[in-house]
Every structure is written in structure tokens, then in C-alpha cells.
Design a protein that fits this description.
This protein is α+β, with helices and mostly antiparallel strands. The chain has two domains: 162 residues, Aminotransferase class 4, branched-chain amino acid transferase, N-terminal domain (D-amino Acid Aminotransferase, Chain A, domain 1, 2-Layer Sandwich); 165 residues, D-amino Acid Aminotransferase, subunit A, domain 2 (D-amino Acid Aminotransferase, Chain A, domain 2). The protein has eight helices and 20 strands. Strands 1, 2, 3, 4, 5, 6, 7, 8, 9 and 20 form a ten-stranded mixed beta sheet that branches. A five-stranded mixed beta sheet has the order 12-11-10-18-19, sandwiched between helices. Strand 13 and strand 14 form a beta hairpin. Helix 6 packs across helix 8. The longest helix has 14 residues. The termini are close together. It binds 2-OXO-4-methylpentanoic acid (COI).
Amino acid sequence: METATMNIKIKLTEQSRVNQLDPNNISFGTLFTDHMLVADCVNGEWQTPEILPYGDIAYNPALASLHYGQSIFEGMKAFKNEDDEVLMFRPLENFKRFNISAERMCMAQVPEEIFIGGLEELLRIDSAWVPKGEDNSLYLRPFMFASDVYLGVRPSQNYRFMIIMSPAGKYYSTPPKVKVETEYIRAAPGGVGYAKCAGNYASSLYPAKLAAEQGYTQLLWTDAIEHKYFEESGTMNVMFVKDGKLITPAVSTTILKGITRDTLLQLAKSMNIEVEERRVPVAEIIEGIANGSVTEVFGAGTAVVVSPFAAIGFEGRDYELPAITENSLSTRLKNALNDIRTGKVADTFGWVWKV
Ligand code: COI
């Protein structure tokens, strides 16, 4: 695949911390690689990006993003194949979605050579940090925030784009128990639900905390108007297996267009599994779990990959799901995805990007 090339100023660390990485004991989002990328957009002009030793950065207290939330991000992963080559998975899809989020939040568009070229250069420098092993990867976090120093409410004229990277293992150690949320909402039509903006995650924290107090790991969001249709789960899209078909809510302005979601749908079709993208009534799924036609419910996302749920809580009652086996569709999809993105099988979809 074509490699974006560009000028990057590079300052390497004097002392690598890679010996802190234990591939058998990785806790999500706690350890960061030796370097980070920083690129500033000043009055509409992107400046030369810099790769610097990972570390703190100082900010003015009037930083616009701290006050009014112009802040977006992406979640991506890199893997190593048998030959220790570093592979990214569908990075152009994240790049495109990032700029869709930027547009909705009235922020600068990031050029491909900074987003993709920056990821490639950073991965070349910190390749020793890409862990091998089942469920392991290097989580890539491109993000951008408004960097004007100004307290008036207006789109910022300056932005900072950054990439940081963090080794990742399994996101959930046990299958999550999720609660159908029928009071609070994540997104409403015309809002910012389809954008990967920081505020969507901030506003989910309080209802998620209330659910945690009732023993639930995560929420299953329903539509803002009637609370009758599933939207997505906490940090992931949601999928159901009913009568052997793979069903998922159709994307809309209230649902994040997940890249793992799209990948699993394509993989399922290639396995001759019938796929339905449509409105999914809560009542249909609850009834289906009770009568045995719904056999699996799982989350799909970059961080969680494919995460089968143990039970769904609805109106004060828990509906247990059957235990997952090697033959479950979620297991087969997860294995197919892992085999492609770690280079174990040929990538006939054109998804793998060798760094
Ligand atoms: C991802 O799956 O990459 C996400 O964005 C979820 C993250 C908030 C943990």
C-alpha cells in the first residue's frame, strides 16, 4: 500500500521505557510508548509535525477545549505478524471518520499525510512496543483539541493534533453484564452521536456509574425519543444473533459508525451468514432471549474487539445469555478478524496496512 511521506521533526528519547511492558500483564490505557506526535494547526495552516519523547505538556488555563469541549479522537490498533512486521488495521477508515467528527465539531481537517504518515513514523520508531500474544495489540490514539487561548464561545482558530500509543490486552476480563438504559440518553437525532467527540463519553459517565452501583458493567443505550430501540453500548456497537442471523442497529446520526462493526458485517457475509442492519426493538431481543431465538449479544469495537455479554438487565430483571462456545458466531468472527489483522491468513479484503 502507498505510504504517505512528509517532513517530521524527530527528537528521540535518551532512555527507552520498553522494559516496563510485560505482554502477559497489560492493563488498558495505563502505559504509554516512548514517543508521541504533535502537530499544530495555526490559523488554518498545519505546521511541521514533531515526534517527541512522551511526556506532560503545559497548557494555558483559558485553553478553549477545556471550556467548550471541541475535542475529538480515534481508537485504532497495530499488530505484529510472525515476521515481526508491524500492521495497522483499516487506518484510512479511522482517518476518514476523524475528519467527519472534526467537521461536526467545527474543527480543522487533518491532512492524510499528518494522520497516516504520523502514525507510520511513530510506529517505526516505537515498533518494539507492539506486543505479540493472543488479544494483545498496540492501541493507537490520535486526538485533536481546540488550542485557542480565549474564553469567548466560537470555533477555535488553532488546533493541536496528537498521537499517543499504549499497549493493550483484553479490555474486559469477564463477559460484561449490561443494563438497558431507559432514562438517560447518549444521543438524539441532530446531535453529535455519530462523532467521536470527548463529550459523548463524558455524558455517559453518570448513567454508567448508576448502573455500576446496580452491578452492571456497561449500558445498552436506547433511542432518545421512545427508549424502545437499541442504539449502541457504552464504548462499542452492539450485535445480536437471532435465529442464526447477525442483526445490528442501522447507523444513523445517533450511532457511531464503527469500523469493527463494519468489518464484522463484511466477515459474516463472507461466511454466508445473513446480516440485517435495521431498527432493533428492545422487546424483540428480550423476548428472543426468553424464548431461545436470541443466542448471542455482543459488543463490537476497537478496544473491546468482540465482547459477548453475559446478561442483559431490563426493567429490574436480568436476562442471562447462553455461554459462548468455539462455535458461537461471535467466537468465529473474532477469530477471523484476529487472523487477518495479525497476518495469520491472507487478507482478501485489503484491510491490512503494512508499516
Ligand atoms: C475504541 O474502541 O477505540 C474506543 O474508542 C473506546 C474507548 C473509549 C475505550
